[in-house]
Amino acid sequence: MVKLKELIKDPVAGEEYFLKGNSSCAGCGGELAFRWIMKALGKRTIVVAPASCFNVTIGLYPRAGPAIPYLNMAFAAGAATCSGIVAGLAARKKLDPSMEDITVLCFAGDGGTIDIGIQGLSGAAERGTDFIYICYDNEAYMNTGTQRSGGTPFGAWTTTTPTGKKEHKKNVPMIMAAHGIPYVATACAGYPLDLYQKVLKAKKIKGTKYIHVLAPCAPGWRFPTEQAIEVGRKAVQTGMWILYEIEDGKMTLSGPSKNLLDKKNRKPIEEYIKLQGRFRNISPEDVKVLQKWVDRQWEDLKIRLACQS
Predict the structure, then answer these.
(1) Contact 199/10 with Cβ under 8 angstroms?
(2) Distance between CA atoms of residues 177 and 180, nearest Å
(3) Domain 4-308 - what CATH class?
C-alpha cells in the first residue's frame, strides 16, 4: 500500500486538481473521492460528468473547481460522450503523438450509472472503448432531492421511499464484470489510498475500466458531516460494502475486506445503519433481511473465489 507521506512529495499526486472553494457539501464523500481520483490521473485528463451533484459542486460561473478539462453532460450521455472523445483523440494522435497520454474519465453518480446511464455504459464496454468509468455512489438522486435509485439499499428512507426502500441494491460492478472488460474494482471514499491505487492501475490498462466508489452523503444519509470517513469505513467493516478487484476475470479482495470472508470478522450491520438517519425507521425484521442479503453477497464471493483456485 502506498503511503501518504510518499504521495505528498509526488509531482502528480502532490497537486490538487479539484480546487478549494468548490460548492460541495461539507463532508461530501464524492468530493473526497474525486480529489484522490485526480491525484492518480493527473492533469492530462478529460472529465465528462453526466447530470449529478458534480454538475453543481464544480462551482458557479465564472469560477470552477476543476483544474482540468471538464464537460457537463446529459444524464444518459456520459459514456457515449466519452466514446466520442476517445475516437476524436485517436484521430488526433495520428497527427500529434504527444496526445497519446491523455486519459478520458466519466465521473458519474449512481442515478447516471445504475439507472439512466447504463445503456451507454454497456455499449461502450461492448465496444471496448479505452476509458475509465467511475461511479460515485451516494445511493440516491441527491442533487434533485434524495429520490431512490437502483443503488439505494433496502430499508433506506428517501423522499420517494418514505417507509423505506423494499428492493435491494443493484450489483452493477458484477454486471460490468459480465461484459468481460479487463478491469473492474470497488472502492470507498473512506479508504482514499486504496481508491488511489486502483485508479492508478486502471490508468495503465487499455480498454474499458470500471470502478464503483461508495461515497457517503451527509445530507442525504442524515449523519453529521464530520462522520463521513467513519460511515464509509463502517460500511466496509460490516461487509455492507466489499472492496475487490477483478482483473481479466480474476477476483481478489482488497484492503480491509481481505479478512472478512469469515463472518466472525465482520461487524454487525447495526453498527453501520445506526449512524444514519435514513435508516431511523427500519424495523428489526428488515434489519435481519438486510443482514441476510449482506451474508449472501459474501457467500457468492466465496464460491467465485473458490472456483478460481
Answers:
(1) no
(2) 6
(3) alpha beta
